[in-house]
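Sorry to interrupt, but I need a hand with the structure work. It will help me judge whether the discrete encoding reads sensibly. Write everything out right here, beneath this request:
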Amino acid sequence: MISVVIQAGGKSVRMGSNKALLPFLGRPLIQRVADRLAGLTDDLLVIAPAEPDLLALGFPVHPDLIPGAGPLGGLLTGLRFARHEAVAVVACDMPFANAALLTEELQILIADNADVVLPVTADLAEPLHALYRRSTCLPAVTAALAGGQRRLVDFHPAVRVIKMRESNTLEPAAFARSFLNLNTPQELADAEQLAVSHPEW
């Protein structure tokens, strides 16, 4: 069993409002993400400000332990509150977040004794659809933050990272689609259309 951490603390500047709570096919976007991953875990938590509308959805919500520490601070908070050793971290604006892919990442984490399994597409890292080993990553993230670092990959030199460039279970298009994230109203509308056209996704 793994913990699933949904990061929802971004400012959503280009979207114009809180992405986590935007309706996606009639329900909050974060609810869609959570539902897609619920079968993986008995420990799903959200890292975000404790806004009433978000709390009303019933998720355990944890604000950043270090306010203003950027994405790495959000990862620290997720690792600190996660109950399991393996921690999946995804973004709240990934409507095609993929449970099968995270399961494959977990298998790699165990088989290769990795600390991070990091998907990579066209040399672009995807740390918000990745697997983390809590016992090794938590101290490394803590040390990176103490050194003034803020990016999600800044602690990687201190741990064993396996880069996952393709999937053994997903076709290349499905692998890449898992990381689709939404930053503008048009991207939201386009993703909804994709979800309607391809409900099997």
Remarks:
- The chain has one domain: 2-197.
